[in-house]
Design brief:
Two copies of one chain form a homodimer. By secondary structure, chain A is mostly helical. Chain A has helices at residues 5-11, 18-42, 49-54, 63-66, 70-85, 90-95, 99-116, 118-131, 135-163, 171-191, 196-210. Chain A is elongated, with a radius of gyration of 21 Å. Chain A binds a DNA duplex through residues 1-2, 5, 16, 20, 23, 27, 48-50, 58-65, 69-70.
Chain lengths: 243, 243
DNA sequence: GCAATTCCTGGACGACTGTCAAGCTTTCGT
DNA sequence: ACGAAAGCTTGACAGTCGTCCAGGAATTGC
């Protein structure tokens, strides 16, 4: 019996622990993948460590060998998944040459995500709700949310640039709006509404265009406090590293 | 020992069961209030029936006397709470006389809700996430969502009417947008961001104005498929009855 | 090929869960 | 006031949970 490997390896930076770290991280990723599968199927409240282990090729005891407790496992899982998500739309941003094309491909990509990854995204929303209660989740969830916000901002600011216009909303608002749209569509989609993805695509296009600042915006709701948000260039998708 | 009261009373419409029904429903509401308190504090995943009972003046056994199981209790709770929510903004709609005032009071009311009822609303988002997994929650959650959508639509359609303009989005999109805004602000607020409520108020005002159809909307994103949504009168807040 | 280390299994633990039923107390109709 | 019904408490039940641990299996360094 030795000290907890989790501690042991993180502690010593021995010259020959390099390979061990690799193997260790590899198996962690493997177990996290199994956990993601289970979590996306059952949700946070109904997922047990034994269930996760049964969806892997290991026994339940091993989970405490690679993760200190259940929370660490789950946080690692969501982080692992969202690390892919935040770059999903960057290819579109890079390759589009006019605003209309960008809006259309953006909408199409969100609709495709809704169709293909509904289960994973419901897990994300589940985790974010948990963060509203569980203090220990908040920091990570907010960090991931911020990554998604930046992703959305790369899209809409590029859109404004291509349209030769200025955005009327902040990055936070832009993200909140598309997130709300997606979430509603997700619930409808999982309820069996097959037209949900199509509607999402159309709505994303419409709303994207609506984010641009209009010169003659209805005088009714205008105040001088309204800001214009320049389409400042934003760093590429690197900013989701472990803190 | 008799048959389950739940069944017995619902079944027979006896002439002298009237008072009993009243008392029965009254205690159900009382227990549901205790349950709401606990749920909003701990969240769905961590709330047990014993914990709920401890937050009431009864013992845990009584819960199965008034509710057939845990799910029925929880659904009853959320329904009871949201029944109040869907009328929260109607006074504003009724009393405002110009668009700018309506937008401002709408934003202020949402900010007040964020400050005063953050815990209850995080429960609502928790339940909605559960509905993404638990089939038995979906029907009720979608019904409540629909009630909220109508509430939002009453506001924005009245806003458009007062502004003498036409709305550019469907009821579903309008709701999704404000819901997304609120949810982001809620997470920030619970993290300790004290400026969150103020920002929400400002953002709600801005976005509300942005929902109106602009005549010169940027040509880039426009397709002939875009619709105009008339500010049709909508029924007052009665439509949340038990199905 | 041996010993040491790492990896993994499977069982055991105490705590907690939803559910239920036996029986006590209170309320109510007559 | 008395008996029946309703309302409520208490304890028990069969599971499940996260966690931990003793020890077998596999791998590694030499």
């Amino acid at each position: 019996m030795t000290a907890q490997p989790t501690e042991a390896i993180h502690a010593g930076a021995d010259r020959f622990s390099r390979r061990q770290v690799d193997k260790f991280a590899e198996r962690r990723a493997q177990l996290a993948a199994s956990a993601l599968q289970t979590l996306s199927e059952l949700g946070y409240a109904r997922t047990s460590l034994r269930e996760i282990a049964q969806n892997s090729e290991f026994s339940h005891g091993v989970l405490h060998y690679y993760f200190s407790d259940k929370n660490e496992l789950i946080i690692h899982c969501v982080r692992q998944y969202k690390a892919e998500c935040v770059t999903r739309y960057d290819e579109i941003v890079a390759s589009c040459t006019n605003a209309a094309e960008l809006a259309e491909r953006f909408g199409a990509a969100m609709a495709a995500t809704l169709r293909d990854e509904a289960h994973m995204h419901r897990l994300w929303y589940d985790m974010r709700s948990q963060a509203l209660f569980e203090e220990s989740f908040r920091a990570d969830v907010r960090e991931l949310d911020h990554g998604l916000e930046q992703m959305i901002w790369r899209i809409v600011s590029r859109y404004a640039e291509l349209a030769g216009a200025v955005l009327a909303v902040s990055p936070a608002v832009a993200y909140a709006v598309f997130d709300g749209l997606f979430q509603q569509s997700l619930l409808a989609h999982l309820t069996g509404d097959t037209s949900s993805a199509g509607e999402l695509q159309r709505n994303v296009q419409t709303v994207t265009a609506g984010l641009l600042l209009q010169h003659d915006r209805a005088a009714a709701g205008r105040t001088e406090a309204d800001l214009e948000y320049s389409a400042r260039p934003m760093a590429p998708p690197d900013s989701l590293e472990r803190t």
